[in-house]
Description:
The chain has helices spanning 3-22, 32-35, 38-58, 63-70, 78-106, 111-130, 134-163, 168-196, 199-219, 223-226, 282-285, 290-321, 325-336, 342-352, 355-371, 380-418, 420-423, 429-458, 460-473, 475-481, 486-494, 496-499, 525-534, and strands at residues 244-245, 261-265, 505-509. A three-stranded mixed sheet has the order 1-2-3, with no helix packed on it. α3 runs parallel beside α8 (168-196), α6 packs antiparallel against α7 (134-163) and α12 (290-321) runs antiparallel to α13 (325-336). Mean pLDDT is 80; it is low at 237-276 and 501-535. By secondary structure, it is an all-alpha fold. The protein has two domains: 32-226, MFS general substrate transporter like domains (Growth Hormone, Chain: A), CATH 1.20.1250; 237-535, MFS general substrate transporter like domains (Growth Hormone, Chain: A), CATH 1.20.1250.20. The chain has 23 helices and three strands.
Amino acid sequence: MNNPQQADTAHANRRRRLWQWWGNNNKPPRLLQFRSSKPFILWVCAFSVFSDIFLYGLIVPVMPFALSDRIGVEPGDAQKWTSILLTVYAAALLIGSPICGWWADKSKTRQVPFMFGLLLLAGATLMLALARTLTLLVVARILQGLSGSIVWVIALAMLADRVGSKEIGAHIGTIVLARSIATVAAPLIGGVVYAKVGYYMVYITAFIFLGADIVFRLAMIEARVARKWDPSIGLPAPPEDPVVEKSEGSEEAASTPRGDHFSINMQPQKGRIYHPVHYLPPFIVMLGSIRLLLALWGCIVIAILFGAFEAVIPLFVEAMFNWDSFGAGLVFLALLIPTFISPAIGRLADKHGPRWYVVVGYVLTMIPVVLLRLVTRNTLHDKVVFCVLLAFCGAFCMFFEVPIHVEIMLSVEEKMRQNPKYYGEKGAYAQAFGLGNLMYALGLIVGPLWGGYVVESAGWEVMTLSLGVMCCAGAVPAAICTGGNIFTIKKDRSSEGKGQEEPQRVSLSVEEALPTPSSVQKPDSDAIGAYSSAV
Length: 535
């Protein structure tokens, strides 16, 4: 008689425990502090990037056999279709990145698109495992590319929400480290599992990592959501020294320091019409920032460099050293393992700012890339030199890859300070990182074409020289504009004493600058009159 009542009671208890885990408007979820902590969010974001790259690389050793044995592609066409599938992946990554960034910034929570990306990755993996036609393989690669765009964009945006610009470098360095570990480990594990256990076990391994990824993403509470119960989570650091900022319409807006304190000049520039609101998506408006454009150039440089190496090095070592595919795979360890220094570079960029690390990274990377042209003989000496130069390439690339992501965040914060009403409370971090991901995907498409075409038409020496020139081309612009125009900064510092007497400066913090009626301190009546007459 009591069985139905006991069942209803048990069901109600389970539902109550579930709500305790997720929380409600009146009561915070269980383990809120841990699930929204910086270390746990970093772990979840790093693991999601690891899973995405791991699942991408896990099937690399399997794909040629799947094309020939399961789909029936002729052995001579296997390389062509492998390249096509890589291009399809990069194209999906390119198209999906800005769209995903816009969606993530507009949505109430980043968790929804984050989980959607995981569903895409699971569907793509299942389709790859069961594919018997080229069409299904292409669709699976498209889904995998879209998933990659979501994972990278939202993972970096979640970190930005939680840690702020003062600590973002070290955390992005950890994300890059997770990418490097997955890049090294995935093909090795995929090849061993396929050789020892078989085709389907490779994908079972993939779904094990997907299952762990699902658990971690569901357990995490992002900063936006956690603030509902604990307003202190993810708030900006205490204010620092203010500087004068120009309006959104200025192309030479002054750079703010790394602190979150700034000032708004209530008197617009003469001869300019002040437009407080734009009608274009933020990711398009942000392209007016020279700082952001130079940071995006760094994204495409690293992608072109690695994309060209991936396309050319296997053929080069086969022709020069008579190495097979196994040797060609091992030589990439020399390029990837030195990238493990990325967290240390990120901490240094947080401490000193990204400017000179980006400049030094460009110049230092050029040197070993150009010196690769000296490898011209099949000798032990040239083999050692080749591996050492690749190791220096991988290490020196980190000097600018991690700091340019710091610069992306700082540049978008500058735009948000100039026009807080337009960017709103949610900001535009995801859209900025989406642009970075778009440029990286573009580099993945251009890099193999660049490397392959130049090697075929002009030779190995010219190819390495052209890549070296590309690396160094951004050094001077980066020295001038990374972190803000260096000449404008010096001018502002020299006039700091004079500027303190100006009555039109109103000091605001990042949170106070958000578009709420009570947030902005009232300037004096003269400043209001000057602003009204200018408009």
